[in-house]
Amino acid sequence: MEKPIDVFEHGRLLIGEQGFEKNHWEAFVKLNMLHNNEYFDVLHNGLRFKQYVGVIQVDGLLVNIHPKADKNDADDKWKPVLLQMLKTCGKLKAQSTGQAQLKRQHINLLEVYFEYFLNELEQLIRQGLVKKYRTEKSNVKALKGKLDFAGNLRHNFVHQERFYTSHQVYDRNHQLNQVLAYALNIVGQFSRTTFLNDKCKRIQLGFPEVDQIKPTIQLLEALQIDRKTSAYERALELAKLIILNYSPDINQGKQQMISILFDMNILWEEYVLQILRIYANQHPAEQWFVRGQEPKPFYASYRSIRPDIVLIKGSAETFVIDTKWKRPNNNTASIEDLRQMYTYARFWNADKVMLLYPGEPFDSGYLPYPNNLDLFDQRMDHHRCKIGMVSVLNDGKLSDSLAEDVLGLVVGKSFNKSDK
Known about the structure:
alpha+beta, 5-stranded mixed β-sheet, about 25% strand, globular
């Protein structure tokens, strides 16, 4: 088994480094092409990663891509961040990411999701897998269901004591269980630890025999959960994640690959939104109302805009936050970002809007958009925008005070680095 490779977003991995060979590079390039070249930039002798973080496994090689907001920070500082963010955003159960795992320096995200899936499947088997009615065509010795005359002539010309019928069967051989079985086989192929291998084999022994299928995206999207199968919801969600990120024989190549990757721009937005919601629920007296991705028509009837986060304080003040998972050059925003924030301010009638970045605490202060056409009706002041930065980490883990720091920036009670 090859040693795992640890890299960071926006970093490079060259052929010949850390056991990364040309055949691995070729498989990564094919995976990238399947996803519209979103995951990394291809170099002639390696890869330059983009904002996607997570894990990719090709045959025996495992590559962990860690988040890192600042290239000047120490590598170990950022390694535990991804699991903690996924846990907070509800993409992992609390039980599947205990403190022992969060403190490990070499965390295999695949193993975390595989164990999560196996635990859900084990619980389903313990409760009893659901049976469903399905139509089956086969030979039977007693007439039941609907006789298929054409099939009966074809199959039973000699054995006239049999009947070829179309009849109802009530068993566990249905699409939900077939999808779970397919995902279970993938886990068995890619499990690198003895613990997961043993657990997977035990579950496979206890899983009923079902037809082998190759689920398509259309089939996975068409699967329906009802009251009877509600217990399947989480296991099925994880099975879809595993299946959709599994790439067997990429473009007829020999390598089998699986990847679980997350866009850090989206994850950072979801994380900030989630911690603000938690804070608002825990402090109702402060009267914060938090909304995420609230759309409004922008152009005609088919274009809309949606800021990352809209905050309403009491019944009067509205604030808009746009999150950016990057470090701004010289603590200044691009003109494109400033124009975007002005648009949000106009459409949400917000006095104050903010661009939020990860980094050393910084508050630019609110500066106006000096457009006198904005002063109408009850509006006596210009829309204003600020650049804010908050510390994501504290003592090697996600900061417990991040929500308070963000809200402090919003209302103007924050701190500059020089104030600390």
